From TrEMBL:
One of its GO terms (biological process) is division septum assembly. HAMAP family: GTPase_EngB. GO terms for cellular component: cytosol. InterPro entries: G_ENGB_dom, GTP-bd, GTP-bd_ribosome_bio_YsxC, P-loop_NTPase, Small_GTP-bd. One of its GO terms (molecular function) is GTP binding. PROSITE patterns: G_ENGB (PS51706). Residues 22-195 form the EngB-type G domain. The keyword Transmembrane helix does not apply. The keyword Ribonucleoprotein does not apply. Necessary for normal cell division and for the maintenance of normal septation. This is Probable GTP-binding protein EngB. Gene3D superfamilies: P-loop containing nucleotide triphosphate hydrolases (3.40.50.300). Keywords: Cell cycle, Cell division, GTP-binding, Magnesium, Metal-binding, Nucleotide-binding, Septation.
Length: 195
């Protein structure tokens, strides 16, 4: 999709604030610093629309980005940020659980994992959780420009093994720097959103 119009519709902390237009939603989840803002910015062709993390983990809201009046990207705040208090973490956990488990408008979830390392425990927990709720997943391995091309097959294989890949899951290697994987990601989104 060629994107010209994007606006931050709302930063929500509870379900009463979710948008009501009924557009399909694509949620994006991942650990802080994994490259989520960079992915959103790449998909919408902006240099720095979604905030890149100068303050990792600070955005504790669900950010609904309206794209071309037909779709929402929902930026779910990054998990695994050690410096927030236990109370804050619980509040955050409740907020994203409520969204991911109750929101019927979710057409798919993009799960970002760092392509330079094997998936971490927190990534695996998130993926298991999303599998349990039978949400269609696109696993995006980020920052692959940092990995030699000769190792890409190995990364893919390792990820598939580690996360108990389901047949309805998809995996894309992505780089915001080299723009690797952008078309494949858009293709998946468009299919999920029934365009
Ligand atoms: P977020 O916290 O998940 O939103 O992560 P950001 O998008 O802010 O990225 C975190 C850091 O990783 C920043 O320093 C980015 O410049 C860097 N980064 C993000 N994507 C890429 C990528 O594809 N390649 C490389 N080399 N660095 C990246």
């Amino acid at each position: 999709m060629e994107v010209h119009n994007v606006s931050l519709k709302i930063s929500a902390v509870k379900k009463e604030q979710y948008p009501t237009e009924g557009y399909p939603e694509i949620a994006l989840v991942g650990r802080s610093n994994v490259g989520k803002s960079s992915l959103v910015n790449t998909l919408i062709n902006r240099r720095s629309y979604a905030r890149t993390s100068s303050q990792p983990g600070k955005t504790q809201t669900l950010n609904f980005y309206e794209v071309e009046n037909q779709l929402y990207f929902v930026d779910v705040p990054g998990y695994g940020y050690a410096r927030v208090s236990k109370k804050e973490r619980q509040k955050w956990g409740k907020m994203i659980e409520e969204y991911l488990t109750q929101r019927e408008k979710i057409h798919g979830v993009v799960v970002l994992i760092d392509g330079r390392h094997t998936p971490m425990q927190l990534d695996l927990q998130m993926i298991n959780f999303l599998h349990y709720y039978e949400l269609p997943l696109l696993i995006v391995a980020t920052k692959v420009d940092k990995v030699p091309r000769s190792k890409w097959n190995k990364i893919e294989k390792e990820i598939r093994q580690k996360i108990e890949f389901k047949k309805q899951d998809h995996l894309v290697l992505f780089s915001a720097v080299a723009k690797t994987g952008v078309n494949e990601i858009w293709k998946w989104i468009e299919k999920r959103a029934d365009f």
